[in-house]
Amino acid sequence: MQRIAQGHKLRSGRVSESHRIYLITAVCHKRQTIFSSLENGRAFVHAIREVKQADTLCYVVMPDHIHWLLQLAEGADLSHAVQKAKSLTTMALRKSWPGTVWQRGFHDHALRREEDIQAVARYVVANPLRAGLVKSLRYYSLWDAVWL
Fold first, then answer.
1. Which of 21, 78, 94, 123 has the fewest CB atoms within 10 Å, counting from its CB?
2. What is the pTM of this model?
3. What is the set of domains in the chain, with CATH numbers?
4. pLDDT tens digits for range 17-72
5. Using CB atoms within 10 A of its CB, is residue 32 exposed (0-12), middle (13-18) or buried (19+)?
6. Are 138 and 53 spatial neighbours (Cβ–Cβ below 8 Å)?
7. Where do the Transposase IS200-like domain residues begin and end (predicted)?
8. Does pLDDT of 9 surpass 60?
9. 87-113: per-residue pLDDT in tens?
10. Left if phi > 0, otherwise alpha if psi is -120 to 50, otherwise beta: which for 73?
11. In this predicted structure, what is the pLDDT of residue 8?
């Protein structure tokens, strides 16, 4: 049976709220392990530093997807901020990864006011541990958090 792409459904009901904190998950095209090399993973890290529409609170780059905890800037649009990061990453990877980098769309979770932001950040950066990629985060280079 053929699978039908449904990334457009992720945009349904999406709202951008200034100063709101969002947890973003974006997946590599066909779950390819594009970010398994440090150099490719750093392309995403450099990209989010260029996105002026959002302040990065933490991130982790996994081999086939990313998690990005951000606070949206005044008047910024969430879709545009994520699109900018994905676009800059794709442009940086043109030579090392000539194919499609990202699946369409992304998942977002707007944190509620009562959610513990640092607990969410700890959960995000612990992804490599839960995936069994490393036994300690000190051995994984593709993560950061503003609280460190």
1. 94
2. 0.89
3. 7-131 (3.30.70.1290)
4. 999 999 999 999 999 999 999 999 999 999 999 999 999 999 999 999 999 999 99
5. middle
6. no
7. 17-127
8. no
9. 999 999 999 998 999 999 999 999 998
10. beta
11. 47
The distance between the two most distant Cα atoms of the chain, rounded to a whole number of Å, is 47
Q: How many Cα atoms occupy the beta-carbon half-sphere of 115 within 13 Å?
A: 16
**Helix, strand, coil % (nearest 5) of the chain?**
35, 20, 40
pLDDT exceeds 90 at position 121? yes
Cβ neighbours of residue 78 closer than 8 Å, sequence gap 6 or more: 14, 16, 22, 72, 108
- Sheet containing 107-110: give its strands across: 107-110, 21-27, 65-72, 54-61, 143-145
The length of the chain is 148
Q: Are 52 and 94 in contact (CB under 8 A)?
A: no
CA distance 4 to 95: 30
Place of tokens 């959960």: 123
CA distance 47 to 37: 16
